[in-house]
Specification:
The structure is a single chain. With 222 residues, the chain is of the alpha/beta class. It has a single domain, classed as Rossmann fold. The strands form 2 sheets. A 5-stranded parallel sheet has the order 2-3-1-4-8. A hairpin with a 5-residue loop joins strand 5 and strand 6. Helix 1 crosses helix 9, helix 2 packs across helix 3 and helix 4 runs parallel beside helix 5. The chain is globular and about 45 Å long. The protein starts with a strand and ends with a helix. The structure holds BIS(adenosine)-5'-pentaphosphate. BIS(adenosine)-5'-pentaphosphate (AP5) binds next to helix 1, helix 2, helix 3, helix 6 and strand 6. The site of BIS(adenosine)-5'-pentaphosphate (AP5) has 38 residues, from helix 1, helix 2, helix 3, helix 6 and strand 6.
Length: 222
């Protein structure tokens, strides 16, 4: 049985922080659309250069480009037991396309944890976020600092501030989330697979709730 989970929530809710840990615990891949775009930009691919035109101003990358990229990623062999999706789907059109992709391979989304965090907390988190150049590991200057300043604890690479974490871009990303992504809360709630998780708590407490939730699904597969 393949288990697919979608981590939903606004920018800065902690989707990436949590998805990395939970995916490692469950032994399934963490697929972050944002990380794939940033990796492509680092390698100066056509996809990366195109996506960056949208990312740097806080807009969404067009649906067709994003869906094509995720379809290819899901088809890889490491998704044989499922995956955690972080940052995708992000529009109703992407959600419908994702349902179709999963249907084609005889799967469906098992659970959608919706990580809720108040807006003022989001802004503080994004303005202090530090991201690792090599693998996208995430830290925070105050809430989750690296052991050595400017250096990733996991792979020793340089930590940097994302260009889209500037205050004016953050404000736009939150607006775009409200307009284009929030409708997915109702979409998945209507399907009975959305579970609200209070993301305004310590990283460890949120992780523990998410692991319990996802392990329940895995146990019910057996
Ligand atoms: P993406 O990279 O997906 O960004 P996002 O959704 O805006 O989410 P973030 O990465 O900003 O936040 P997060 O929820 O992962 O929080 P994190 O764990 O880092 O997308 C970037 C751009 O790519 C988009 O704007 C768009 O242009 C494009 N894109 C991506 N996907 C797309 C799609 N499907 N369609 C179209 N375009 C797409 O945590 C944030 C900070 O808070 C960190 O510093 C962390 O250490 C800290 N923190 C986390 N949890 C806690 C906690 N519990 N307590 C205290 N601090 C915490």
């Amino acid at each position: 049985m393949r288990d697919f989970f979608v981590f939903l929530g606004p920018p800065g809710a902690g989707k990436g922080t949590q998805a990395k840990v939970v995916a490692a615990r469950l032994g399934i891949p963490h697929i972050s659309s944002g990380d794939i775009f940033r990796e492509n930009l680092k390698n100066q691919t056509e996809l990366g250069i195109l996506a960056n035109e949208y990312i740097k101003v806080g807009k969404l990358v067009p649906d067709d480009v994003t869906v094509r990229m995720i379809r290819e990623r899901i088809s890889r062999t490491d998704c044989g037991a499922g995956a955690i999706l972080d940052g995708f789907p992000r529009t109703p059109a992407q959600a419908k396309a994702f349902d179709e992709i999963l249907k084609e391979i005889g799967c469906q989304i098992n659970k959608v944890p919706y990580i809720k965090v108040p807006e003022k907390v989001l802004i503080a988190r994004l303005s202090g976020r530090l991201t690792c150049r090599a693998k996208g590991h995430v830290f925070h200057k105050l809430h989750n600092p690296p052991r050595e300043s400017g250096v990733c604890d996991f792979d020793g690479s340089e930590l940097y501030q994302r260009e889209d974490d500037k205050p004016e871009t953050v404000a736009r990303r939150i607006r775009v989330y409200e307009e284009q992504t929030r409708p997915l809360v109702e979409y998945y709630m209507d399907r009975g697979i959305l579970v609200e998780v209070d993301g305004d708590r310590s990283i460890d407490l949120v992780t523990s709730d998410l692991i319990n939730l996802l392990e329940e699904v895995e146990k019910s597969d057996v």
